[in-house]
Amino acid sequence: MPEEREKAEEGKEPIPAWQLFYDDIFLLFFLGVAIPTLVYTVWGLMEIVQIPELPVFKP
Amino acid sequence: MAIKEPERIWWKPFTRDERLWVAMALLWMMGSFVFMPVYHFIGAQNPPSETYRVRDHEKFRALVDGMVAKYKVGEDKGVPVVKPEPGSDVFMQASMWQWYPVLELEKGKTYRIHLSSMDITHGFSIQPINMNFMVVPDYDYVLTLTPTTAGDYYIVCNEFCGLGHHLMVGKMIIK
Amino acid sequence: MDYRICSLTGLKINKPAEDLIKWNMVTAILFLAIGGFMGLLMALTRWPSVHYLDTSHYYRFLTLHGFDALLLWILFFEVALVHFTSAVLLNTRVVAPFSAWIAYALMLVGAAFVNIVVFAGKADVLFTSYVPLKANGVYYLGIIIFAVGAIVAFANFFANIIQARRDKAYQHSLPLGTFGLAAASIIGIVTLAHGAVIMIPVFFWSIDLIKYIDPATYRLVFWGLGHPSQQINVCAMVAMWYMTAGFVLGAKPVNEKLSRTAFVLYILFINVASEHHLLVDPVLSSWHKIINTSYVMHLAVLASMIHAFAIPASIEVALRNKGYTKGLFDWLKNAPWGNPAFSATFLSIIGFGFLGGTTGVIFGTEQFNIIRHNTFAITGHFHATVVSGTTIAFMGGTYLLIPYIFRRNLVLPKLAAIQPYLYAIGVAVMLIGMMAAGTYGVPRRHWDITFSNAIFSFSFDPSADMFLSMMGVGGLFAALGGAMFIIISLGSIMFGRKIQ
What we know:
Distance between the termini of chain B: 67 Å
Structural class of chain C: mainly alpha
CATH class of the largest domain in chain B: Mainly Beta
Structural class of chain B: alpha+beta
Strand order of the largest sheet of chain C: 1-2
Number of helices of chain C: 16
Number of strands of chain C: 2
Strand content of chain B: 35-45%
CATH superfamily of chain C: Cytochrome c oxidase-like, subunit I domain
Low-confidence stretches of chain B: none
Shape of chain C: globular
Low-confidence stretches of chain C: none
CATH topology of chain C: Cytochrome C Oxidase, Chain A
Radius of gyration of chain C: 22 Å
Oligomer: heterotrimer
CATH class of chain C: Mainly Alpha
Helix content of chain C: over 70%
Number of domains of chain C: 1
Number of domains of chain B: 2
Largest sheet of chain C: 2 strands, antiparallel
Mean pLDDT of chain B: 93
Mean pLDDT of chain C: 93
CATH architecture of chain C: Up-down Bundle
Number of strands of chain B: 12
CATH superfamily of the largest domain in chain B: Cupredoxins -  blue copper proteins
Order of helices and strands of chain C: EEHHHHHHHHHHHHHHHH
Strand content of chain C: under 5%
């Protein structure tokens, strides 16, 4: 089966770029790790670090 | 088939009904996304984010005690009832398993309510109007709150805080 | 090489893959049995007129219910799917069986640690174990070991894929089912890495080697484990939907581009929904909350909307091709409703879509969250996604895979035909009761909502009691359906008629 398909492929139109992107599991893996880690975790940690100290209140 | 490799090139244009469905869904999604920031400007009720770090719990406790000493107007079931000035900073502490003190607030006046925990995480749930916020130790969470209806309100803890969790009920009186 | 050809599907099945699928599936079902039984005890305790357990047992078994039913049953099953979709669907082999078995062993040891320490009463901290609430160190150690094992298991998926590519088991694109599990594995690794990253310092803190863990940091990173572990389920469940439609009906995705786009959106954006737990927390800014709670402008919700269109459409097309073409709904009437693999899939689509997904988007809206956070409505929401979505889909998956992998026929086929319906209806009644009670403010994870011994007496609107009873009745039916599933699946695996 795969060999037949390979033969049939010769001289055919190129695969669209988007399809290549979707097929690239490892690029998706990288983005899938990077986006939530940056948008959620790292951004969140930056905000936690920047919380100001309790100010002085006049009672 | 979902269980077989698809044909060599499957990147093909959407059909008309697919386009329609995706467009409708996208429109709805954007609507409900934009709603959130927009409501911060037009809405009366938004989750606050004003927060301070409380490195020393005693510092927060001192603020609570100072407020109780100055504005105490009575006692309810042994818990002091405090009537702070409208517009002022009001401090409430959560600990296993008590909300301290009882607050007496005026309808239509705005208060800055500071919430912090002396031990573990608690949940600040105002009943029966059902509004819920988290109280995290080592942080002071400031709710800017304007009561609109008079009556007795109860503060139920809705984050698990040990075996006495279900005993942790506080009170707020709106006059 | 050690292969056999499946007489039912024509798939080439690798012996180590088969064994791994078997062991992971059986382990998953056993943990579902424990977790489900704990669930029954929860329903009986939250049912006001029954109020079965005492305080400490309620919180102890609630901890166990969360861990066994939410993490163990589902992740063990997903690891079985990892091997099924990467090795079996591609007609290739498990490339490193040894590491796959190490992963299994680590997961099992971690699971055992947690179960034992919770049963022993040393970790009544609930599933979330919010610092500075402290459990025995063994509890955190168990979670770490389990998470590391699960990371290794998901890494196996990618190893198998690379090998499959080398073996020319596929040319360009993975089958859609495998692609769905790729999404699940990617999300799984992000999730479990968050779990390991936060649980390791907490473990050292629990044995007094570290003095302080910041509670807000814990909450942030913990939910990087707690919520996305449910997004692994979403991907695996949707993949299961496509696969069941493919195996049972020969259905073909109506448009590969559409369905794959949905999975890509999941991979990129669904994980940030961890924010749903932090919307009324101090610390985080409104923009952090808005961007994250909306899964980056609701793009991951768009993905679910796409699946909601694509899967029923592919089922319709497949049934119409079988000749059920009269009128608009002839195909629906003639769907194989008596086949539990199909009916479970269908019920899972309905339950997840209408009850789970919608409430998730609503409760995850920053402002609405004020009136729903930590109420029983949230419990209703995630039972809709995890139980009436994922668990039912995986029950269907079990019925589908028992003949293919265990080479056994189902025992009690009549009971199996009604089991998904009974379970789905029970769960639906239960979670609608939960959601309705939550609208009155009834808190989740609460032993006594009558506050009978509290200093201030407060009682909820009496209607809440009615909805809590509704939850109890639904819970009983769900428990019955769940018990039927355990009996049918384990019974078939042990005593089902052999398929040659």
